[in-house]
Amino acid sequence: MATVLKAAPISQQIVDDLAKQCSLLKKDGCIPCLKVILIGEHAPSVIYTRNKKKFMESIGAECEIIKLAEDVSEENFLNTLKTQAKDKSVHGLFVQLPLPKHLSHIDVGQLVPPEKDVDGFHAQNLYKLMAGDKGENALLPCTPKGVMTMLKHAGVSLEGKSVAVIGRSLIVGKPLSLLMTNYNATVTMCHSKTSNLKQVTKSSDIIVAAIGRAKFINSEFLRSEGDQILIDVGINHDSDGILCGDIDQNDVENKCALITPVPGGVGKMTIVSLGQNLITAATNQLEK
Ligand code: NAD
Fold first, then answer.
1. Domain range list for the chain
2. CA-to-CA distance for 7 and 266, rounded, in angstroms?
3. Are the folds of 29-112 and 142-266 the same?
4. CATH: 3.40.50.10700, 3.30.300.110, 3.40.50.720, 3.65.10.10. Which one for 142-266?
5. Ligand 1 proximity of 166 Cβ (cutoff 6 Å)
6. Which of 137, 154, 268, 272 is deepest in the core (most CB within 10 A)?
């Protein structure tokens, strides 16, 4: 039976630590502050931003959700973004995606100043990953950072390990592949056109599924030794409408060494990483 690596005990430890760091920053006159720009009433975005606000407040930081109408003009949207970007009392800033159609051509990741880019998508922050940074004091994309935190907590060293990262998106697969490479893993980044996926996954010590297809990875993708580590990034609903990951957890639970659950795994860590990035951003800005 595999070890199930749950996020809750890990995140609790980090939350306590973040709360302490937050109160130290406050003693130095800096109240860590996150601003989130939310456009329209897209239901999942409303829930995500509400959860982020709740989390930031739980560590003692400030968080304001700036709500703009679905049909906000490009000029008003950009002005709001610029005002927050310039405001010295704002340490972290991001725009909740997706953007409405009439604004979808805007690359918001590049409009947030790199020092406030708590999503970790600014070219300057991504370049650090390209250059080999391990990201300890950097603003890293939140989901990859969460995966790394979980592996570290479980005592999994990446050095010399072979990893199959399935998915090459800018928010998960690509930055995670770079980050794992910077920790001396040998990474194969797989995607929808990979022709020998099962061969790659069977020969990997660690498999990361970031695909967006419910229960896609099953025991057919694993080798028989039962020694592999499976990280499930997916957030999907199965045919019964039940929340599930990209890995068929029931099918693989006796055939791997360690697995992250869905729910209660990587998803929970993403918001924790955002909190870590906010405290890093506030600390860096205070030091400047
Ligand atoms: P995406 O749609 O941008 O990318 C999916 C990737 O999967 C693509 O690179 C594609 O090439 C690859 N892919 C698709 N079909 C494949 C196949 N048959 N074989 C191999 N590769 C295939 O998705 P994303 O934004 O990276 O998200 C992936 C999943 O992770 C989704 O379920 C999403 O909801 C979830 N997600 C979770 C978190 C979290 O906090 N846990 C954060 C972001 C995304």
1. 29-112, 142-266
2. 7
3. yes
4. 3.40.50.720
5. yes
6. 272
Q: What pLDDT is recorded for position 287?
A: 85
Residue 83 has pLDDT above 90, yes or no: yes
Point out the ligand 1 atom lying closest to the alpha carbon of residue 172.
Answer: 26
53 is catalytic: no
Q: How confident is the model at residue 136 (pLDDT cuts 50, 70, 90)?
A: confident
Nearest Cα residue to atom 14 of ligand 1: 192
Topology classification of domain 29-112 = Rossmann fold (3.40.50)
- The protein residue whose alpha carbon is closest to atom 17 in ligand 1 is 192
pLDDT for res 277 = 97
pLDDT tens sequence across 152-193: 999 999 999 999 999 999 999 999 999 999 999 999 999 999
